[in-house]
Design a protein that fits this description.
By secondary structure, this protein is α+β, with helices and mostly antiparallel strands. It contains 16 helices and 37 strands. A hairpin with a 4-residue loop joins strand 34 and strand 35.
Length: 699
């Protein structure tokens, strides 16, 4: 019998590495956390594997597969650490990055008061090459190879090691870009190169250029990181002492996973790797609890990620962005803000309080870690206000409250605030940062935030749950079991998924079914090859077709499903009808029946899906009353210092209730229950937090 029965999900964050392992034979599941090791992430990764194997009483030979979510690319982009990039584009289009888009970000009023941020590649590092393709791929002018060699030598002479290539209309024919890549490899083989026809075969030159440059920027980090992990995994040997390659998957932003050997060729797909896993895990947990209108809030050490789930499915987008960088790859619609437990509180030149996006991470970490941190963080504020205990991970990481107090008092003095006022202010700024991110995915998209349950998870995700209920008027908050490990759990629930896209613009009434069939078949063929390479046989492979449609003259599209089976006029008509419906839902109107308003097909998409086995939902026994879970009390600050009862979550059962002020502690997270709020444990062990109502029905 094959002993390789253990599947492990590992989510590496900026501060902690979270691990979940499930035994596919018995259904047994164990979780743990371990500090991240930024100097060598593989150390924290392997330590986590050793911990869960020890809990299960198994050895490395029992590992069947490892799935991994990482914030390596996300944090690099969030913190703006994108540098030493070069850009090659078509002659005459050297200012595509500067022109960008005409839209002005919210909050600036108009363009007179908005200063454009520094672009991803400075003007002196942009080189153009001769040659030109038409929109349909016809060659207008051949590629000028001499200009390509000149550009390659320019970058080599200056030590610019990472280069993005985006030529006009290369989505229609990649041959020019592929030749540029080959010449770069000849002249400057040490360089890391990304070409847009491999990263994103869609029109819109600015978005394609930025996406390609982001891919190039994160490629060295992802490649080194993933290869290092894969090599270290070989240390887990089989019984006869021979090292083996453990199947190793990396989470993608689109809600699927991909083998490590493939993900190094498309690193842009991992930019929201960890957040995507968390959203999927939270969606599954909420669905089991009978909640289908969900907002997720994943608070880590460096950032907080939020998304919306409707009827069990996280929203997908190709209009996402991470930090200042738009990204057109398919991704779960996540908004990320620099508001994690390690986010640094600081004073602006105008002497106002700010929090993040800079983070102390895991090393040196917050002041209270005692590892050399020099600036106060959100975690320091929580521990000094008694919201979290003076230790983490069940005592594994003791916290130095005196170091935290000195740093926070210094900031309070600079801001001319009282100690408690400064600490509460740090948490309040953080709560509003998170609330504004949640508004972006709801109110700005026509959704009423008050109709949603918020699922909070991650090590710091639940610390501000009560404030978010107040600020946003939420129905309630759901905190899953092992909230610090939800992203790692999500990694065990996701399918292998590959997305392929091809721009093909045409009026609906002029498109031929055979024409669309040929294009969809070509995309499905690519997906089929990828799934075969991942080890899925024909009976397991699934394909999902979608298309981006718009009314002629519109600038942006709406994605709709394209049904299974042969492409026929009837099937095309059903997609057009779905577009009318989706347009009305999004914008409040449609042009159905107006023959002067033509529907236009723009992008065709195929997703190849290889399904995996999902763990069963957990349940807990009925509780015997919250008093049996009480472990003591301590002073905590809410509006004032008050005696706060502390509970051990592991001792709480279904039906138990707790009234604030209280703190519920567990290995991976802490949940403060503010005065005026109550918590109830449901049958799945989730904490359900809601505002307490008085006898008159008022809050």
């Amino acid at each position: 019998m094959d002993s390789r029965k253990i599947r492990i999900g590992i989510d590496t964050g900026g501060t902690f590495t979270d691990i979940v392992a499930v035994d596919d034979e018995t259904g047994a599941m164990v979780t743990t956390k371990t500090p991240s090791t930024p100097a060598d992430p593989a150390e924290g990764f392997l330590t986590g594997i050793e911990k869960v194997l020890e809990k299960l009483g198994e050895s490395g030979e029992s590992i069947g597969a490892v799935s991994h979510g990482t914030t390596v690319a996300t944090n690099k982009l969030l913190e703006g650490k994108v540098e030493n990039l070069g850009f090659i584009t078509t002659e005459g289009y050297e200012h595509v990055l500067e022109i960008a888009r005409q839209s002005v970000p919210d909050g600036y009023g108009n363009s007179y008061f908005w200063v454009k941020p520094d672009r991803i590649v400075p003007a002196d590092r942009v080189k153009t090459v001769g040659g030109r393709l038409a929109f349909d791929g016809r060659e207008i002018r051949p590629l000028d190879e001499a200009s390509v060699r000149t550009a390659a030598q320019f970058f080599k002479d200056r030590g610019i090691m990472t280069i993005g290539v985006c030529l006009m209309h290369s989505y229609a024919d990649p041959s020019h870009e592929e030749r540029v890549r080959d010449i770069l490899d000849e002249v400057f083989p040490e360089a890391t190169v990304s070409i847009s026809s491999q990263v994103l075969r869609e029109y819109r030159e600015y978005e394609r250029s930025i996406t390609t440059l982001v891919d190039a920027a994160v490629k060295p980090n992802i490649r080194n990181y993933v290869n290092n992990i894969a090599n270290r995994l070989r240390e887990f040997s089989t019984a006869d002492g021979e090292a083996r390659d453990i199947p190793f998957y990396v989470m993608k932003s689109n809600g699927g996973v991909l083998s490590a050997k493939e993900v190094v060729h498309q690193p842009i797909t991992t930019v929201l790797s960890g957040p995507a896993a968390g959203a999927l895990g939270a969606a599954l947990i909420a669905d089991a609890a009978g909640v289908d209108q969900v907002l997720t809030c994943d608070g880590g050490g460096t950032s907080t990620d939020v998304t919306v789930v409707v009827q069990g499915e996280p929203a997908l987008t190709t209009e996402g962005r991470v930090g200042n960088y738009p990204s057109k790859i398919p991704m779960i619609d996540v908004v990320t803000v620099g508001a994690g437990g390690g986010s640094i509180a600081w004073m602006t030149p105008e002497r106002t309080l700010r929090v993040g996006p800079q983070s102390a991470g895991a090393d040196p970490g917050p002041l209270c870690y005692g590892k050399g941190g020099s600036e106060p963080t959100i975690t320091d504020a929580h521990v000094l206000l008694g919201r979290i205990p003076p230790h983490l991970l069940g005592g594994e990481i003791p916290l130095d409250t005196e170091l935290a107090r000195k740093g926070l008092e210094q900031l309070a003095t600079e801001l001319k605030l009282g100690f408690e006022e400064c600490a509460v202010g740090i948490l309040e700024v953080s709560a509003w940062n998170q609330a504004n991110a949640l508004r972006q995915i709801t109110v700005k998209r026509g959704l009423d935030v008050r109709n949603f349950t918020l699922v909070t998870f991650g090590g710091s995700g639940s610390l501000l749950a009560c404030r978010l209920i107040d600020i946003l008027g939420l129905k309630d908050v759901l905190v899953p079991l092992d909230p610090g490990n939800v992203s790692a759990f999500g990694l065990l629930t996701v399918d292998v998924r590959n997305d392929y896209v091809q721009t093909h613009v045409g009026r609906h009434d002029r498109l031929q079914a055979a024409e669309l069939q040929e294009l969809f078949d070509a995309l499905a063929g690519k997906a089929e090859i990828a799934l075969a390479d991942e080890g899925f046989d024909e009976t397991q492979r699934r394909y999902a077709r979608t298309a981006d449609l718009r009314y002629m003259g519109q600038a942006f599209e709406v994605r709709v499903p394209v049904g299974d089976g042969p492409i026929t006029p009837e099937l095309m008509g059903a997609s057009a009808e779905a577009f009318h419906e989706a347009h009305r839902e999004l914008y409040g109107y449609d042009f159905r029946g107006d023959h002067a308003q033509h529907v236009e097909w723009v992008n065709l998409r195929v997703s190849g899906i290889g399904p995996i086995q999902r763990p069963a939902a957990r349940t807990v026994a009925a509780g015997s009353g919250s008093e049996s879970a009480r472990t003591g009390s301590r002073k905590s600050y809410f509006d004032s210092w008050v005696d706060t009862t502390v509970y051990d979550r592991a001792r709480l059962g279904a039906g138990d209730t707790i009234d604030g002020p209280a703190v519920i502690e567990e290995f991976s997270s802490t949940v403060p229950i503010h005065p005026g709020f109550s918590a109830r444990i449901d049958t799945h062990g989730n904490i359900r937090i809601s505002k307490t109502f008085d006898s008159n029905g008022a809050k």
